[in-house]
Design goal:
Layout lengths: L6 E7 L4 E5 L4 H4 L1 H11 L8 E7 L11 H11 L11 E3 L2 E2 L5 E2 L4 H11 L2 E5 L3 H5 L6 E4 L2 H9 L31 H13 L3 E4 L6 H6 L10 H13 L14 E2 L7 H5 E2 L4 E2 L1 H4 L4 E4 L7 H6 L1 H6 L1 E6 L2 E6 L3 E6 L18 H8 L4 H5 L3 E4 L5 H4 L9 H19 L8 H7 L4 H14 L3 H17 L7 H9 L3 H5 L4
Helix pairs in contact: 2-3, 7-17, 7-20, 20-21
The structure holds adenosine-5'-triphosphate, magnesium ion and zinc ion (ZN).
Adenosine-5'-triphosphate binds next to helix 8.
């Protein structure tokens, strides 16, 4: 996530013509010498017939990828007197070279631009990275299509042309999102969706097949408050260094990642010999939707415990360790049992109590403890599904209330309720004596952990915010507590 400045030093000496690169280059960087040689020749420059040593400093940092091609080529040109070294000062360069001298896009252009801006340097990027780098609005970005075009500008006395992509220009790409109006009935589930949207809480939808769980979850993005600029840049930086790269048209939208349960552990949580972010990090500041939750491998679900608690994920692989941000809102859906119909109003469940218990235990207690809002999604009656029945409330109206409640939270604590620390919970979720007593009673029934109590208080705070109430009342507590009892009470195998 952090782009570390690397100095490229070039030395020409007598001896047999050769080019060696030192400073922990990995394969792609070692191969750079062949691309650089061809690109320099094909751009009409001379490739010096000397013994060339290129040093990438700091020496103990492994260097990956093709991004060093351009600075290495410029180093060779400067060392052999074909361009003036002075014109390179105050500018950072990244870019991969094609054999013909064209510049190819590299991953990580946005983090590089942010780092260059912190150094108060300009940044030269390949044309294909122009928009992405331009998201770092305060950085001076220059984009070029080829080594030759860049060198022509460096040699001329004119200052380089600056790219002026502003974030605002790229803002307008709100894609059409699914609307809540399509969901009929399901008043409780819709309410739960509104609560989690307002406070960034985690959500679990439990119910028989075909009741609209996946449908509801996919409509959550449409009612969430917008990303702040800072959050959008963080999320875009992660996408920028990921395998898939950044989709520039979506950078202002909250991420919504819905990995399939057959996806590999590395794809989900991140990893690899050169650690890359996984789905959990790509969902940073947004939603990670896990449909058919019990089908996910146990070890993957258990890794989620860390990011759900502290908003970060640590990936350790043989000698390499990386921390990626992963402040996610987890939304999950599941059937209550293997056949799917336990607790259904019509269809009888064919599972034995032990089978139901075994199925539900695929989701560990610690994970369930982190899910603040658990809601049963029951069968809707046909009268509500008929095409002439009234449609549900539309997303725009719900979003209005969500944004209002979230604004209260931002003003109070500078963050959504779900992200309040234990100390902040004490400060902002103050209760009266009657409420303390009420909680004590409810606890006897549900046996909640200390974490669950704190989390329930945060949900109650959100419910109160939605109601515009300054203090948490008993009704708010009752609603928050009810979201804890779905699997513990309603769907308990018996
Ligand atoms: N409440 C509803 N209002 C309108 N349509 C619905 C509703 N519930 C289900 N449907 C219809 O049924 C389809 C299936 O719903 P969905 O995929 O959300 O079910 P599910 O609860 O996720 O089931 P499963 O447990 O099998 O995954 C929807 O695409 C929609 O056409
Ligand atoms: Mg489904
Ligand atoms: Zn069953």
């Amino acid at each position: 996530m952090q782009a570390i400045p690397v100095s490229v030093e070039t030395h020409l000496a007598g001896g047999l013509p050769s080019l060696s690169i030192v400073g922990m280059p990995e394969t792609a960087v070692r191969e750079s010498k062949d691309r650089v040689r061809a690109a320099i020749l094909n751009s009409g420059f001379d490739f010096p017939a000397r013994r060339i040593t290129v040093n990438l400093a700091p020496a103990d940092l492994p260097k990956h990828g093709g991004r060093f091609d351009l600075p290495i080529a410029l180093g060779v040109l400067a060392a052999s007197g074909q361009i003036n070294p002075d014109c390179l000062s105050g500018i950072e360069f990244i870019g991969e070279l094609a054999l013909g001298g064209e510049l190819r896009a590299v991953p990580g252009a946005l983090p590089s631009a942010i780092a260059a801006q912190q150094l108060d340097h300009a940044l030269v990027v390949p044309s294909a990275n122009r928009q992405e780098a331009g998201l770092a609005e305060k950085c001076r970005i220059h984009a070029y299509a080829s080594l030759l075009a860049l060198c022509n500008d460096l040699i001329s006395t004119e200052p380089l042309d600056c790219v002026t992509t502003t974030c605002a220009q790229l803002n307008s790409h709100e894609s059409a999102v699914l609307d809540l109006a399509d969901v009929r009935g399901q008043h409780q589930a819709r309410r739960a969706l509104e609560v989690v949207a307002a406070g960034a809480h985690n959500l679990l939808l439990v119910g028989p097949p075909g009741t609209g769980k996946s449908m509801l979850a996919s409509r959550l993005p449409g009612i969430l408050p917008p990303l702040s600029l800072e959050q959008a840049l963080e999320t875009a930086s992660i996408a920028s260094i990921s395998r898939g790269g950044l989709d520039i048209t979506k950078w202002r939208q909250r991420p919504y990642r819905a990995p399939h349960h057959t996806a590999s552990g590395v794809a989900l949580v991140g990893g690899g010999s050169q650690p890359k972010p996984g789905e959990v990090s790509l969902a940073h500041n947004g939603i990670l939707f896990l449909d058919e939750l019990p089908e996910f491998p146990r070890h993957v679900l258990d890794v989620l415990r860390e990011p759900l608690e502290n908003g970060e994920i640590t990936i350790s692989r043989a000698g390499n360790q990386a921390d990626f941000p992963a402040r996610i809102q987890m939304v999950a859906a599941m059937n209550p049992c293997l056949c799917g119909y336990y607790g259904d109003t019509r269809e009888a469940c064919r599972c034995a109590p032990e089978q139901i218990a075994r199925y539900q235990s695929r989701i560990s207690g610690p994970l369930l403890d982190r899910v603040d809002v658990q809601i049963a999604v029951q069968r809707v009656e046909y009268a509500q599904l008929r095409s002439d029945a009234a449609p549900g409330e539309c997303s725009a109206d719900v979003r209005e209330r969500v944004m209002q409640a979230n604004q209260i939270q931002q003003q109070r604590a500078g963050k959504s309720n779900a992200h309040l620390s234990a100390k902040e919970v004490e400060e902002f979720c103050e209760l009266g004596e009657a409420q303390h007593e009420w909680i004590a009673q409810a606890l006897d029934k549900l046996n909640l952990s200390a974490r669950a109590i704190h989390r329930t208080l945060k949900v109650a705070r959100t419910v109160a915010d939605l109601a515009g109430a300054t203090n948490i009342g008993e009704a708010h507590l009752r609603e928050a507590m009810s979201y804890r009892s779905t699997l513990r009470e309603q769907y308990r195998p018996r």
